[in-house]
Amino acid sequence: MTDILGRLNAVSREIGDMPVSAGAGRSMLLRRIFDAPVDEVWRACTDPDRIGRWLAPVAGDLRPGGTFQIEGDAGGEILRCEEPRVLKVTWVLGEGMPSEVEVRLSEGADGATAFELENASPAETVDQIVRKYGPVGPVGIGGGWDLTLLALDRYLRGEEFDAATWTGAPQVREFIIGSIRAWAAVSQDVWGSTDEEIDAVVAFTIQQFVPGAADGGDGG
Prior knowledge:
This protein is α+β, with helices and mostly antiparallel strands. The protein has a single domain (4-216), classed as Alpha-D-Glucose-1,6-Bisphosphate, Chain A, domain 4. It has helices at residues 4-9, 38-46, 48-54, 123-133, 136-157, 170-191, 195-209; strands spanning 12-16, 25-34, 58-60, 67-70, 75-82, 86-91, 99-107, 113-122. Strand 7 and strand 8 form a beta hairpin. Helix 5 (136-157) packs across helix 6 and helix 6 runs antiparallel to helix 7. It is globular, with a radius of gyration of 17 Å. The two termini are 18 Å apart. Residues 35-156 form the Activator of Hsp90 ATPase homologue 1/2-like C-terminal domain. Belongs to the AHA1 family.
């Protein structure tokens, strides 16, 4: 994997307002194009064996109304599964704030797939947290999804990598740092954080995702 900047720029990032079951929502929205047919991307996101090759093993009653658990990661309920267009689930990680994730697929040009992933949480809760702590949560959530989409991209390209250990590679660390900075810029535009607040958020989030990266120095 050599084109770090290209893979960062392949993703469009927004703070959206997708509702959640409880009402108004605040969301991290990622858009990109995958150079693979819709059916192939759909299977990569819904077939347990394929999910295990790029994300982690998944278990559960994998049907609408059923539940799932990703090994070492989130679990939840399957709310919608409309092959091969829409997948929506609740997304609960430990004791963290419950959220809802929706994946939307459509045909792009030349047989490619237009992919959208939107992760929404209750708007009032998110805004309260941002007012108190700054946009650490949205930046971290967005960075985590960027990393997930990078793994999916590598899988769809047929690149060899160990899904359990690949995040320690120098180029992946560089990608994570670039992603955090990108989400910090988006968050600043939405919540009006000062430059000093954003610098603190970036430094803290990088340290959480990339331990040992002093002040984000790995990213340059």
